[in-house]
Structures are given as C-alpha cells and as structure tokens.
Amino acid sequence: MAERGPKLVCNSVWKLFGGGAEKLLRDSGGAPSAEAVAGAGLIGAVRDVSFEVREGEIFVIMGLSGSGKSTLVRCMSRLIEPTAGEIIFDGQDLLKASAPEMVEIRRHKMGMVFQHFALLPHLTVLGNVAFPLEVQGIDRSTREARALEIIELVGLEGRESYYPRELSGGQQQRVGIARSLAVEPELWFLDEPFSALDPLIRREMQDEFLRLQNVLHKTIVFITHDFDEAIRLADRIAIMKDGGIDQIGTPEDLVVRPATDYVAEFTKEVSRAKVLSVASVMTPLRKTTPSGGYGGEVPVSAKIGEVASLMSDNAKPFSVIGSDGKPIGQVTKDAVIDVLIQG
Amino acid sequence: MAETSITPQVDGHGSAPPTAQSWLTGHPKRVVWMAVIAAFGLFWWFGKPWAAWAFKYPSAWKWTINEQITAAMEWLMNDATFGLFTFRELTRAISAVIEVPYDIVLSLLSTGFLQGQGSQAVQIVPPLSWIAVLVTVVAVGRYVRDWKLGALLGLCFLYLVVFGQWESAMVTLSSIAIAVPLGIVAALLIGLLGYRWTWFERAITPVLDLMQTTPVFAYLVPVLVMFGFNAVSAMIATMIYATPPMVRVTILALRQVPAETVDLGTMVGCTRRQMTWKVMIPSAMPTLMVGVNQVIMLSLNMVIIASMIGAGGLGFDVLASLRSLDIGGGIESGVAIVVLAIALDRLSQAMAERTHGNRVKPAGDENLVRKHPYTVFCVAVALVTGALGFTWGEIQNYPEAWTITSGAMWSDLVRYINVNFFDELEAFKTVLLLNVLIPFKRFLLSLPWFGVVLLLGVAGYTLGRWKLAVLCIVLSLFIATVGKWDKAMITIYLCGISVLAACAIGIPIGILSAQRERLWRVVQAVIDTLQTLPSFVYLMPVIMLFRVGDFSAIIAVIVYALAPAIRYTAHGIRQVDPQLVEAGIVSGCTPFQLLTKVKLKLAFPEIMLGLNQTIMLALSMLVITSLVGTRDLGQEALIALTRARTGDGIVAGLCVAFIAIIADRLIRAGADRMRSRLGLH
Questions:
Q1: Are B282 and A135 inside 8 Å of each other by CB?
Q2: What is the CATH code of the structural domain delimited by B47-67+410-678?
Q3: Do domains B47-67+410-678 and B170-354 have the same CATH topology?
Q4: Residues of chain B contacting A99 with CB distance shorter than 8 Å
Q5: Do residues B249 and B288 touch, judged by C-beta distance below 8 A?
C-alpha cells in the first residue's frame, strides 16, 4: 500500500456541553482534567481528540454508547460546533470557514449516512437520492439521471418510484447511501449506518459497502459501536472512551498490541485468525527450498483464517508472496495452527 | 340551612383535594387539609357578622377596568391615528383585503358574478350549478382517496340540495373556504417563528392559553367594533377561534422532526429557506395535517356563533330558528352544518393520510387531459351545465319543488313528546332543580370570596408551590375585584354540576368499554361523531324537551363534555402495562380487584387529564348555553355583545378564562405529581 497524505486532520478537538465551556478551557490552558470538567458541571463529550484520516482509507471510530463518537463525527462536519481545536480538511480549517463556505463544502465535498436513514418521507427513492442535487439547484432531468446511476450502483434499480415506508430497512439504508454519494463527495461520513439493521442484513450491507469502496476509493470516516464490524471494515480504528481516544491503529495492531486494558477487553474475544495476516507468522525466506518443496503460495496480506483450510490438508510449508508478486517468506502449518488454537 | 347540611356541602366543595392528597402523600397532609377546611368552614359559618366585606365584595373597591377598556376601544376607533392613516382606516383596509378572495369564492358558489350595485346588479356569469359542485366534490373525493370517499362527499352535498339547504350551505362553505386557508397560513407562520425562537414561543404560549380558554363571545365584541357587522368580521373571529391549536401543533410537529433529518438537511447544504420548506415542513406534514383538520372542525363549530356578527348561511338560519323557536327549521339547518362538517372532516383526514403521496406521474406527458383528468372533467361539467342552465333552469338551480323538508316532522315529534311526556319531563326537571341544582347554587353563592381565594392559594401551594399559589390567588382576585364574583359562582355551579354528571356517566362507560374490544370500537365511533358536531347542535334537542333555563343548559353541557371523560378513562385503562395486569392476575386478583387495585390506580393520572378536558369543554359550551337563558358569565358576555360594550365582554370572557386556567393548572399539577409518584413517564 502506498503512503497516502492526510485528507482530514483533527487537532485537539474539544466539545464540552454546558454553560461556560470556553472559559473553563481558557482557564485551564486548553486541557482541563476530566475532574475539572465534571466539577464545572459540564459534560465532556469530546476531549482532546487528535488524529488524521488519510486519503482513500476507511477510518473507523469505534466506541460504546456515550463515548462521544457521534458528537465527534458531527464536530468534523460542523453539525455541532466544537468548543476548541482545529479540523483541517484539504488544508483548510473548517472551524474558521464562514457559514456560506460551509454550505459549499457540504454541498460538494461531504456526504453523510445516518443511523436511522433520515430519508424524507414525502419523496420517492428517486427524489431522496436526487435531493442533495435539488438543493444545489440542478435541473430536474440532470439530477434524476445522476440519481438513477447511483440507484443502480447500490442495487436498487426498479424501485425508483417507491416511497421509503415501502422499503425494508436494508433497502432504506441503500437509499441513504446512494443519496450521500449523489454529489460525489470526497469525504464520506457514515454514522453507525448498519446499527439499526438485523444481523444478517448488516453483514450483507458490510459486504456491499466494501464492494462500493473498491469501486469508489472514498476517504471514509465510519462510526460504529460494533467491534467486529470495525475489524471487518477498517483500515485503521480509533477506540473512543469517555470522549477521548484510547488507541489508534490497524485491526492487527489493536489485537496484537492493545494499548490499554479497555482496548484489550474488546480484542480478547476477537478471533485472531480473522485479524492476523500471514505476515505476522511468516518466517524469512530461506536460501534453500525446503526438501519437500512448497505446498503452495499465499499472499502476505491474507488473513490466517482465510488460508487455514488451504493449508490443513498439506503438511508442507507455504511460500508467502509479497504485494509485488515475489516470494518474501514462508509460513508453516504449525504456526497457523498456533494462531487458530489461541482463538 | 340546618346543621346537617354543613358536612355534605363542605365535602362537596373540598373533599376532592384532601382525598387526592392523602392518596398521594399519606396521612400528615390530610391533617393539614382538614385543618384548612375546618378553618374555612368556621369562617364561612361565623365570620359574616364581623367581616361582611369578605362575603360580598364591596362595590366601593370595584375595579372598573371594563369601562376603561370600552373607553380605550372607542378612542381607538374614533381618534387613534398612525399619522398617515387612522386605526379605523387600518381595520377597513384589512377587511377590504380579506373581502376580495371571499367575494370571488362567494360569486363562484352562490351569487354569481354581478355587475352594478345593490338591487340594480345584473348577473353576468351565473354561479357554479349545483350539478357542477356535486360532481366536483365527488371527483375531489376520488382524487384524494377512492370512490368510497367520493360517494360519501357526494351524498353529503346531495343532502344539502335535496333538503333545500343549498344556498345557505354555499354561503357557509365560501366563508370556510377563505377562513380556513388564511387561518392555516397564519398558524403555520406563527408556529414557525415559535419553533425558531424559543423566546417567541414563550411569549405566545400564555396568549394561546388565553385565546383557547376565553369564550368566543368575549372577542366577538372587539371584532364587531373594529370590523363591523359583516361576513369579514365573522371570518376574522373564526380565525381567532380556530388557529391557536394549529399554532401549537405546528411547533410540536416541527420539534418532532428527527434530529437526523435536520442534520441531513445541513449536510446536503440546505439554505435556511430550503431547510424550512424542503425538509422541515414536509417531514412534519402528517402531524401538521392533524392541525389542519382541527382548524376546519373549529371553523365549522364557529359557523353559528359567527352569524351573530354577520356571517350569513347555515349559521344564521340556525340562530334565526332558535330565536323564533322554530325547532324543525333549526334542526334541518343544524343537520346541514353537521353534514358539511362530516364531509370536510373526512376529506381533510383523507388528505392527511395521503400526504405521503401516490406514485409520481411519468414526467414529460404534455397532454392536459391525461395530466389532469379530474380538473379537466370538472371544468367541462361546470361549463356544460352552466350553458345548459340558461335554457333549463333546473340544471342551474335545484328547483324548490323537488326539495324535501323534514322540518314539520321534527316539530311534530317535539309536539308529540311534549304532549305525551310533558308531566314526566317536567317532574324530572323540577325534582333535580329543587333538590340538587338550587341548593348547590345557593351554597356556592354563600361562600366568602376571600376565603375561597385563600383556599385556592393553599391548594396551589400544596400542588405546585409558590408559583401556582400566586397564580391561583391573582386570577381569582381578579374575578372578585372586577365585581364578577357572583356570576363566576353561577358559572362554577353550572359547570361543576355538569362536569360531575359527565364524569359519573362517562367514567363508568370508559371503564366498561376499555375492557371490551368490540364495545370500545362502537363507543369510539360514537364519541368521535359527537365531537364532530358543532356545539350549537347540542342545544336544540335539549330546548325542545326542557325549554330554556339552567336545566337545559346543564343537559347540553353534559352531553357535549361527555366525550373526553369516556375517552381518557378508556385510554388510561387500556395503556396500563400488560405485565402489571398479568402480575395482578398471577397474584390472584379477582377481576374487580384487578380493576380497582391495579388498572384504575395506574390510569388515575390519565383520568384526571380527562377530567381537565371535560371541564374545559364544559366551560366553552356553558358560554354558548347563555343563549338559552343562563345567568352566568356567558350571559354577561352575550349582553356585552348585543350592546357592543367591548370592556364588559372582555372582562366577562377573561373571568371565564381565569376559571378555566385555575382548574387546568391545579389538575395538571395534581396529575403530574401522581404520575411521578407512579413512575410513569
């Protein structure tokens, strides 16, 4: 994977609810303790959060209810005004943007998917998907043509004239996704998009989401309370607790090296085989090919769970192929079995 | 009065608060209450010789605000000026603006388009023929929902034609057609402002409270003085009466729009205007339509009263019949209003359900007939029947010879009942009057105003601390100082008896029907219909049977106020958590124990709110019954109206409003405390 530049950077973002929040921040030099915040009768929804989202990555913010993740994503789009900090999008500090500038940025560069879909009940699927374009004043035939394209992309063709109430939850969220993509946003926010869906549908929608991202390569901020979902979708994950971030890292980082007990609590139950890649158990390439030869080839980025069945019928070690297509190491059956046994 | 009568009387007045209290917080409060009641009783019994002022409010202390208001109004109409124009010119301008659309609709439906003035006028275009109107309403019904609705609307309008109510009905319909949209737009805009600015909502809430509790007669007077005796005044009064609930509904509906939907609007970059008209209002539409329905129903409720300040049409017919005791004619016009009400109610409800639309029509079809089939068809029918009407008059105007009248039948029925059952009815009435009504009235009138004010203060303090205590004391003091205490007591007597009776009938019905699904559906249909009827309609059968007087008034009020007592009781019982009912059954409750120990206890706060609604409806009806000869505050307002004395009308109206507000706040505070005790909500 090539190194990509930051698309969105959050620097020491604070959001305190309650009167006198600015004063408290000023008086404490910009970093009041949790006790000081509570003592002032304020609620620290977001506390000193800093991270960057790289172009084209799926950045998942994971936290339980009340951890401040929804407030944080709303701060990033300025749906909620942060109390302090910087939010730099393409080099521009959003918190310094004027209201008309924000309208322009939201109209052309941001899209958002909501937990409860937020479909407008009086508009059809077509009308809902075309709504962001309608707001921009784009003429009807152009915007409907564009909307039809996206409706097809999310697999809802044939349902353009349905009303939201006539659709299932999964279909409604497809409309929500299509609508957020109508303006071809550079930055795509998804606020717990699949939490309101049944487990089976949720899984299907996650696959669908990954398929879309393979085509679209958006920069994504994805909010969830479901750690498994985070692991499944994320390039990198930020774990939030009580308004602050406990750890940021790839799923593998979190599982192998949890920074706090809180993070470890989540990763404890995660099946390692699903998270760890072949790279983590690979041994360097030997000079000589083993006596029996290799049993086969596996890509370095493959998850251990994916290759386990392949290797189970074969006692020979497997050759590990790097992203450039050349062998870079080998992996033995024992190493794989060790991971599987750890659970 | 003998010693024995003290106990029941004191109980009659004061037993509700103490028992409610003891049920609430146990014994100690009950003791306090007993002491307060005892002190009040002693003062009432022995206080008169040394504190006569506390019993009859001294006329020297009277605050003559009514005269000041009347004088201010006269000044406003005769001398007030804004420099460029006078106040009178302003009111004239307002009525001229409203008159333009009204004239157009009236011409279309009733008079035809005229050229020239008065009796010289020549009709250049006739109004829509009855056939055209009939076809149009059927088409509207079909368009909005289905043929069934179309047929219902058609039948309703057919009734108007066949029973000879057409002309009056069209006049009424014209004023509704103007007053309702204007009222809706006004309410929507005020509601939007209230939603946007919390301070504005806080400012208008007490105004809305007052508008909804002040009896209509009170503001008919200033409207009459400002805008004169004509249809426009009537429409303005209708709007004042019908819009406050819609304002509240608008604010509520906008608040209910999910936060995510608002976020969506911001995220797609809506401007403020787009946010309001493309996101907020469409999302709030289902709830808003409930408000629209209310505006329509309240406007129809106002039809008869509005005819007192110049609305013609059905309302005027009813009022005229009522005044000349032409029962048959009155009933026929009254039923016509009901029919109109049912038609408009069903239509607006169907529109509410439809707001989320049919399939969108394929764009690009430019054929007018295919695009708007109903409109084209109706216009065609109107043109054809209009043209044929010049040759065959019966196509234009339904011939009088074809009309049926049921007036004689109603008159005969009443005569029959009065001839055959006069003695029984009279005996019933007299027994109740002598044994219940008059003693209760005397008792209330004998109470010291000063003591009652203090008692209300104590009640306010125990239920809602100082804020409520001060409110109760100030509002009741107002009634005393403007010299309306006795009239207010008569109002309370009429209202109290009616409410007690309505609860005595309504609560058992509610309890019975709550537990039987099929019965509940029947009862619900009946009370829904009862609530669609304009309040005036209740007066007619009552006068026929019992003639004018307090007794007739009470019967009408009871019937009118019955619906909320039933509805809230049934609703309260039905919403009791089924798990608690199951817990009761598992604990071995008999059905009776289950009802009294579980269901009723949990439904009690809801029943209290029903009581509250019953009182509000009773008070609003009571004012109207002053037309049949009660001697309370309503009559004061009515007299003020006939003499066009603004101040008297407003003061009497405010007194009624204050009674309503005191009762409302006390009951609400009580119900809220109970709820939090029961851990509901």
A1: no
A2: 1.10.3720.10
A3: yes
A4: none
A5: yes
**CATH of span A274-342:** 3.90.1280.20
Got the DSSP string for B173-242? HHHHHHHHHHHHHHHHHHHHHHHH-HHHHHHHHHHHHHHHHS-HHHHHHHHHHHH-SSHHHHHHHHHHHH
**Domain coordinates in residue numbering, chain A:** 54-270, 274-342
Cβ(B598)–Cβ(B589) below 8 Å:
yes
CATH number of A54-270: 3.40.50.300
- Across B508-537, average pLDDT: 83
Contacts of A126 in chain B (CB under 8 A): 360
Left if phi > 0, otherwise alpha if psi is -120 to 50, otherwise beta: which for B590? beta
Across the interface, do B266 and A120 touch by the CB < 8 Å criterion? no
Judged by CB atoms closer than 8 Å, whether chains meet at B355 and A118 is answered as no
CB atoms within 10 A of CB A145: 10
* Total-model pTM: 0.79
Pseudo-torsion of CA B210, B60, B466, B47, nearest 10°? Answer: -130
Homologous superfamily of domain range B170-354: MetI-like (1.10.3720.10)
Spell out which residues of chain A touch residue B264, defining contact as CB-CB under 8 Å: 112, 114, 118, 120
Which residue type, as a one-letter code, is found at position B144?
V
What is the predicted pLDDT for the residue at B356?
A: 53
B71: pLDDT strictly greater than 60: yes
The answer to whether the CB atoms of B355 and A122 lie below 8 A apart is yes
Q: What dihedral angle (degrees, nearest 10) is formed by the CA atoms of B670, B676, B677, B681? A: 120
Angle, helix B130-144 to helix B373-391, in steps of 10 degrees: 170
Could you give the 3-state DSSP secondary structure of residue B436? Answer: helix
Q: Name the residue ranges covered by the structural domains of chain B.
A: 47-67+410-678, 129-162+369-404, 170-354
For the record, the structure tokens of B67 come out as 């005269």
- Report d(CA B615, CA B623) in Å as an integer: 13
Q: For residue A166, what is the nearest residue in chain B, using CA coordinates?
A: B356
E strand or H helix at A236, and its extent? strand A236-241
Name the minimum distance, in Å, from the CA of A152 to any CA of chain B. 19
Cβ contacts of A179 on chain B, cutoff 8 Å: 268
B202: left (phi over 0), alpha (psi -120 to 50) or beta: alpha
On the question of pLDDT at B652 being above 60, the answer is: yes
Distance from CA of A20 to the nearest CA of B (A): 21
Range among B208-222, B235-249, B457-471, B540-554 with highest mean pLDDT value: B235-249
pLDDT tens-place values along chain A, 343 residues long? 445 678 899 998 999 888 888 888 888 777 788 888 888 888 888 988 999 999 999 999 999 888 889 999 999 989 999 998 999 998 899 999 998 999 999 999 999 999 999 999 888 999 999 999 999 999 999 999 999 999 998 888 889 889 898 899 889 999 999 999 998 999 999 999 999 888 888 998 999 999 999 988 999 999 999 998 998 899 999 999 988 999 999 988 888 888 999 998 888 878 777 788 887 788 887 766 666 777 778 887 788 877 877 777 777 888 888 878 788 888 888 888 888 777 6
**Pick from A77, A120, A135: which is nearest to B282 by CB?**
A120
With CB atoms and an 8 Å threshold, state whether A165 touches B279. Answer: no
pLDDT given for residue B378 in this prediction? 76
Question: Which of A128-137, B386-395, B609-618 has the least mean pLDDT?
Answer: B386-395
A140 touches B at CB < 8 Å: yes
Residue from the list B285, B355, B359 with its beta carbon closest to the beta carbon of A161: B359
Question: If we measure between CA atoms, which residue out of B168, B294, B182 comes closest to residue B237?
Answer: B182
B87-121: per-residue pLDDT in tens? 778 888 888 888 888 888 888 887 777 776 666 77
Work out the widest C-alpha separation in chain A, in whole angstroms.
74
Q: Do A122 and B279 touch (CB under 8 A)?
A: no
